[in-house]
């Protein structure tokens, strides 16, 4: 990545979208939320568009879904990566849906009708909730599925974040769906520390997002959701209808790269950024180069 792009990214990250008053409508404004995976996927979208000859402004590190969606509705943002489960549960306030195509169909229809926002093709990557453990613990305690954890929970220690203990799609939902899940010990941690507790032997199981970089870098085991409790969280570009009508080639360009964003690819990219301090723009460039796209 060039120095000028590094400076541009730094300036964008430091400038809240709400303070940006003037935009060049000839450029495509690509946004991201405020976490690693959103940064790198937004960079993939931005660089793919640039490789096709389009001019892009990066409006990264916006914060929550609500902020990004509001910017789209005001016309301050043209597209960003969004998750079907987030749209379904946090925006539309509907129940979780485990089937990826069904979840996508519902959010795509509702967003077009309510907000004039178009969902392009989703990636196979599914950043859902999960429970993870080490290979040694999985083997010793014979854990492969969430049903196994539900039964063994009285003899297990859980490392989690506080939010998981109250969310309906967190521990209360697991207890309703599977029964059991009465852990012998539960300790809450900051999100960055729960894997450390697992690796240091202070916990047997940790809550996870299934594309977390630590799963790849630490060779962790994600326990299978055998009753399909958790919602699908496939990522896709969401685009303002007006922006897509003005530049319909956006769909063709992004639909060509989205199928390559798999669980494994996302875990690898996240791990490079979080464990090796790689720049998201460099990681995105390498990913696109592997597809034959020159950014």
Number of E-type strands? 10
Q: CATH topology of the largest domain, which one?
A: D-Maltodextrin-Binding Protein, domain 2
- The helix content, as a percent range, equals 40-55%
Q: What's the multimeric state?
A: single chain
Strand content: 5-15%
Q: How many domains comprise the coordinates? A: 2
Question: For this structure, what is the CATH class of the largest domain?
Answer: Alpha Beta
Query: Structural class, from helix and strand content?
Result: alpha/beta
Summed up:
Helix 2 (36-51) crosses helix 12 and helix 4 (84-91) packs across helix 5 (100-115). This protein folds into two domains: 3-126 and 234-290, D-Maltodextrin-Binding Protein, domain 2 (3-Layer(aba) Sandwich), CATH 3.40.190.10; 129-222, Osmoprotection protein (prox), domain 2 (D-Maltodextrin-Binding Protein, domain 2), CATH 3.40.190.120. The protein has a five-stranded mixed sheet with strand order 7-6-8-5-9. Strands 3-10-4 form a three-stranded antiparallel sheet. It has a two-stranded parallel ribbon with strand order 1-2.
Describe this structure in words.
This protein has 295 residues and is of the alpha/beta class. The chain folds into 2 domains: 3-126 and 234-290, Periplasmic binding protein-like II (D-Maltodextrin-Binding Protein, domain 2), CATH 3.40.190; 129-222, 3-Layer(aba) Sandwich (D-Maltodextrin-Binding Protein, domain 2). It has 14 helices and 10 strands. It has helices spanning 3-14, 36-51, 65-74, 84-91, 100-115, 135-141, 146-152, 171-178, 194-199, 213-217, 241-246, 249-257, 263-276, 280-290, and strands spanning 28-31, 56-59, 79-83, 117-119, 129-133, 157-160, 185-188, 205-209, 221-222, 235-240. It has a 5-stranded mixed sheet with strand order 7-6-8-5-9. It is globular and about 60 Å long.
């Amino acid at each position: 990545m060039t120095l000028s792009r590094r400076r541009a990214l730094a300036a964008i990250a430091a400038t809240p979208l709400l303070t940006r008053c003037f935009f060049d409508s000839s450029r495509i404004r690509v946004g991201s939320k405020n976490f690693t995976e959103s940064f790198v996927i937004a960079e993939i979208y931005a660089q793919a568009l640039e490789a096709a000859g389009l001019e892009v402004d990066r409006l990264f590190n916006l914060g929550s879904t609500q902020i990004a969606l509001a910017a789209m509705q005001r016309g301050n943002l043209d597209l960003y990566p969004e998750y079907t489960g987030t749209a379904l549960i946090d925006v539309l306030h509907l129940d979780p849906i485990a089937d990826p195509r069904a979840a996508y169909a519902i959010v795509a229809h509702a967003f077009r009708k309510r907000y004039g926002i178009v969902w392009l093709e989703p990636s196979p990557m599914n950043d859902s909730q999960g429970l993870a453990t080490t290979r040694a613990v999985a083997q010793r305690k014979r854990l492969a599925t969430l049903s196994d954890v539900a039964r063994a929970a009285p003899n297990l220690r859980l490392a989690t974040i506080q939010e998981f203990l109250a969310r309906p799609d967190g521990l209360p939902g697991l207890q309703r769906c599977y029964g059991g899940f009465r852990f012998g010990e539960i300790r809450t941690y900051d999100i960055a520390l729960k894997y450390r507790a697992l690796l240091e032997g202070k916990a047997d199981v940790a809550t996870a997002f299934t594309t977390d970089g630590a799963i790849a870098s630490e060779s962790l085991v994600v326990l299978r959701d055998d009753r399909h409790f958790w919602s699908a969280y496939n990522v896709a570009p969401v685009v303002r209808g007006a922006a897509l009508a003005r530049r319909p080639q956006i769909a063709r360009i992004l639909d060509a790269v989205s199928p390559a964003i798999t669980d494994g690819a996302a875990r690898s990219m996240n791990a490079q950024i979080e464990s090796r301090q790689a720049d998201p723009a460099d990681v995105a460039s390498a990913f696109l180069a592997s597809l034959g796209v020159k950014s």
